[in-house]
From TrEMBL:
Name used for this protein in its record: Piwi domain-containing protein
Highest taxon of source: Eukaryota
Organism: Acrobeloides nanus
Residue ranges of coiled coil: none
A molecular-function term among this protein's GO annotations: RNA binding
Gene3D superfamilies: 3.40.50.2300, paz domain, Ribonuclease H-like superfamily/Ribonuclease H
């Protein structure tokens, strides 16, 4: 609050939540009555000062966010449906508008002290709605012109229904025309209502080169505290902000070497390495596989298959000729079910689906991708979806696209493409078999899904959350496999009972896949996506469930644990200053001596090469260290995990196990929503479907039916 006063009173900012200030003026107008605003993100903490002591620090970044534009509600309607004529708006259009604007607060233009929250629209246009007034039945337009002296210009539009409680406690409904309602300023667009277009606009505004971004941050700080030494308000509280104390030492970690086939590779400065001429470390053999494609695409598909088989052999893979199945009607669920039932009964290893990645009106991927993944999960047959656009690229000799497809096929079929060899940290090297890495993440409803209120009116807060969990328990110590399970909605902590069950499954998988390594000594838990206020929950609840699972698996087995929390959701930025400009540091940069917590190991690591904008380091907090590793050892270990992705031939920004856990959780979420969408049709085709919508009593059955645990998919990285 101390740092907000100046910006709010003198520079046109408004506080919209803890740690955020946004300019009242709009920066950019979007569709649907939505705008973008420039803002400041700030936080405080007690950190090391680099001189052996601690001190409070303020962290500032700039940001952009979406808001509902403050305007007459009619203008919001026009923005949403332009260039449609207002007389042609349909019931579906109004349902879409209601879904987006439900929960938005508006005031009444002729009585500005009165405000309401939009809940629903009237079923009829206001010109067809009457109510008793002074002993007679009167229409809404007639009431407004006779009583309010306001002629309605859009009587053919529905109105907003507002419930009012009478003195006797009973409720009655008034209907307010849209044109007498005005959207109140500074209302964020909720995450679940941000369309892909809105999210893309936010991303584009936030992609700012480092030097420009740091200048914007500096200017923002001048608005927060123009001169703290002369700021009487801060002085009275004994606060002074030193804006010259933000120098920090960067150190650089050695990049791990990459083992691919029988060769060792040194990644380039941007962490990438060339793979076209190298074989896989563990190439797979695909004996029985099928291709699903449209009849008109068969000619190109056959040429593509020959290219895949040829390129795969150069990588050490073995392919038998596939069975080609024509998709005459992609909407025929009986056909999909019969086809996948056949693949499962005949033990097909793999199914390649060739289809378009077309976009719907909201910009979201069409659900044929989700559909094939749903049938993959129901029948436990591994699949890959490739667009005809990608096939055309391959036929045009686009080597990178072909390599990417091969990487996925090999990985999905239990192959290992490559693995990193950490330098100077061999003690905890995965290939030794004494180290187990477990990662998990919780997924809540995502904005890009069809569950958005204005696309899916059935969305409610009772949709289950999904936990993705994985570990390096495959046939090779570098091969991660995992699954997802469902739990109570909006619960950030992983369910204890389910966590125990899935940890024990991972341990049993390890004993089956690598019996010689079935009791690793060092267990690393890498958890993603929680704030510092949730560390206690992770330690006291989730970690204890994990330890209990180990004990139940084998009471005599007593490994040591390290628990690391990773997050990119912070507002600390680090740049390299050279010749008067600020640049992104090279990959491998670490901050661990200043601006980090004093009560636990905390460090910031830039493992990847950011393709554009300002680099954002990943923050790591070590909340348990039973092995007594040094900070250098932990940094090297985490750094190497960022080179385990398997599909991308470069480092990623977070440990690959965390990346996989996040994708597994998202996959479970997608599967649930697709099953819900198709449920009424599928329940007559597939008799043992779990109940949808799912209640709490259904989560276990849902997890078993849509997951891979205890099925033929459990030994594969099916989410690759």
């Amino acid at each position: 609050m101390l740092l907000s006063k100046e910006a709010v009173e003198k520079h046109g900012f408004v506080s919209t939540g803890s740690g955020f200030l946004y300019e009242e003026k709009e920066k950019k107008l979007l569709k649907n009555g939505i705008c973008l605003k420039f803002g400041i993100s700030k936080g405080v903490g007690v950190v090391k000062n680099g001189k052996g002591g601690i001190q409070p620090a303020v962290f500032v970044d700039i940001t952009h966010a979406s808001f509902f534009k403050s305007q007459n509600l009619i203008e919001s309607v026009k923005s949403m449906f332009y260039p449609k004529d207002s007389t042609t708006l349909t019931a579906d259009d109004w349902k879409e508008f209601q879904g987006l604007y439900k929960g938005v607060r508006v005031y009444v233009t002729y009585q500005e002290s009165k405000s309401i929250t939009i809940s629903k629209l009237s079923a009829l246009p206001v010109q067809k709605i009457t109510f008793p007034f002074e002993g007679k039945e009167i229409s809404i337009p007639q009431y407004y012109i006779e009583v309010k002296k306001i002629p309605l210009r859009f009587p053919h539009f529905p109105g907003v229904v507002n419930q009012i409680r009478k003195p006797d406690g009973s409720l009655f409904e008034e209907v307010l025309p849209l044109e007498v309602l005005y959207v109140i300023d500074n209302q964020h667009v909720p995450a679940q209502k941000k369309s892909p277009d809105v999210m893309d606009a936010i991303r584009q505004e936030n992609i700012i080169p480092p030097h420009a971004r740091f200048n914007l941050i500096k200017n923002s700080m001048n608005k927060l505290v123009p001169d703290s030494s002369k700021n009487e308000f801060l002085r009275k509280f004994g606060v002074r902000v030193n804006m010259q104390s933000n120098e920090v030492r960067l150190k650089y970690l050695d990049k791990p070497r990459i083992s691919m086939g029988n060769k060792l590779i040194d990644p380039e400065d941007k962490t990438n390495w060339r793979t076209a001429t190298l074989s896989y470390s563990k190439p797979t053999s695909i004996k029985k596989w099928a291709i699903l494609c449209k009849p008109e695409d068969k000619k190109d598909v056959v040429i593509f298959v020959n290219e895949i088989i040829k390129a795969g052999k150069n990588k050490g893979m073995q392919f038998n000729n596939p069975k080609i199945v024509h998709l005459n009607d992609e909407d025929d669920l009986y056909f999909w079910s019969d086809m996948f039932c056949h693949f499962a009964q005949k033990n097909f290893d793999f199914v390649l689906y060739i289809g378009e990645h077309s976009k719907n009106v909201a910009g979201d991927a069409k659900t044929n991708h989700r559909k094939i993944k749903l049938f993959e999960s129901l029948y436990k047959v591994s699949t890959e979806h490739i667009s005809m656009e990608s096939i055309q690229k391959c036929l045009a000799r686009d080597v990178s696209t072909l390599q990417n497809i091969l990487n996925k096929i090999n990985c999905k079929n239990s192959g290992l493409n490559y693995f990193p060899l950490a330098r100077g940290n061999e003690k905890y090297a995965l290939e030794k078999g004494d180290t187990l890495v477990i990662s998990y993440d919780v997924c809540h409803p995502k904005p890009s899904k069809q569950r958005m209120n204005f696309e899916d009116p059935t969305f409610n807060q009772l949709e289950p959350s999904v936990v993705g969990i994985c570990a390096n328990v495959g046939h090779d110590p570098h091969y991660f496999i995992g699954d997802h399970f469902f739990q109570k909605p909006r619960q950030e902590s992983a369910d204890s009972e389910m966590m125990i069950e899935y940890i024990k499954w991972l341990l049993k998988s390890l004993a089956k896949n690598r019996p010689k390594n079935s009791r690793p000594l060092n267990i690393f838990i890498v958890r993603d996506g929680i704030s510092q206020g949730q560390y206690e929950m992770a330690y006291n609840e989730e970690l204890q469930s994990i330890k209990k699972a180990f004990y139940e698996f084998d009471p005599k087995y007593a490994p040591k644990f390290v628990m690391i929390i990773s997050t990119k959701d912070h507002n600390k930025l680090f740049g390299e200053y050279s010749n008067g400009k600020i640049y992104n540091p090279y990959p491998g940069a670490v901050v661990d001596s200043k601006f980090v917590r004093n009560d636990c190991f905390e460090f910031y690591l830039l493992a990847h090469n950011p393709p554009q904008g300002t680099a954002r380091f990943t923050q790591y907090n070590v909340i348990l260290n039973e092995i007594n590793m040094s900070i250098d050892e932990i940094e090297d270990f985490v750094h190497a995990l960022c080179y385990e992705h398997q599909i991308i031939s470069a480092a990623v920004s977070i440990p690959a196990s965390v990346y996989l856990a996040d994708k597994l959780a998202s996959r479970g979420d997608d599967l649930y929503m697709e099953l819900k969408k198709l449920y009424n049709e599928l329940k007559d085709i597939i008799p043992d479907l779990p109940n949808v919508p799912a209640g709490q009593e259904d989560y276990k059955q849902l997890s078993n039916r849509l997951g891979c645990k205890n099925s033929r998919l459990e030994t594969t990285n099916f989410r690759a």
